[in-house]
Amino acid sequence: MTDITDAYFSNLIGRLETLKQVLAEPMAQAASVILDAARGDKRVYVFGTGHSHMLAEEVHYRAGGLAFTVPVLVGSAMLHEGAVISSVYERTQGLVRPMLERYGMQPGDVIIIASNSGVNAAPIEAADYAHEIGAKVIAITSIAYSAAIANGRRRLAEVAEIVLDNGLPPGDAVLDLAGTGLRVGPVSTAVGVTVINAIFAEVASELSRSGDAPVYLSANMPGAAEINQRLVKKYRPRNPHL
Q1: How far apart are CA 82 and CA 104, in angstroms?
Q2: Which has the closest alpha carbon to 200: 215, 190, 184?
Q3: How far is CA 8 from CA 43, 180, 231, 240, in A?
Q4: Residue 98 is inside which H or E element, if any?
Q5: Each residue of 186-242: pLDDT tens digit?
Q6: Is the C or the N end of the chain the one with fewer CB within 10 Å?
Q7: Helix axes of 188-208 and 3-22: crossing angle, nearest 10 degrees
Q8: From residue 207, how far is each of 21, 211, 222 by CA, in Å?
């Protein structure tokens, strides 16, 4: 393992160890809110633009994942239809409402909004829309990043009921390339995926106590077809991506 590879692993592992302690209380709060929604047959939406959308894909139809999650996946706000224009979209006012309206969000639902920078128009408007509907907002964001670049703009950390601060520096990348002024090794995706999967694992554990944890199985596992088909039939009406 090279020095920079070792440095990346060490940096990421160190951050996760720290966050396991720092985020213990807000993660427990997030799990409690999601658990209440699940017991009320509500949905948990996951939204992010740019690379943050990968957290929404992570929870969708996932082996070991919960079936009541709904990813918000809109091509123009992701990367595969044009990375440059998607960066413009996420900063443009008024585009998120029509994106979210197709999902039928309801009072009592929950939306997890991932935005590392926490100041672009899209995540703020998503939070505002959710509040209008009567849904609760959980944010995964970097407070340090948004504080450094806000310049008077509203911040996601200021409008969410529960804030999961990923503790990342402005710019996301954590490793300096000596003599270049450049940084490499972004970690927001790895941190975000770990946090969200840990929360859902806690929720699933609590639901399993009553024998009602709607968890998908890997398609190659025994009994997966029957279990997954049953879950899809139940949750498809409110998840346009199933």
Answers
A1: 27
A2: 215
A3: 36, 18, 38, 37
A4: helix 96-101
A5: 999 999 999 999 999 999 999 999 888 999 999 999 999 999 999 999 999 999 999
A6: N
A7: 40
A8: 24, 7, 22
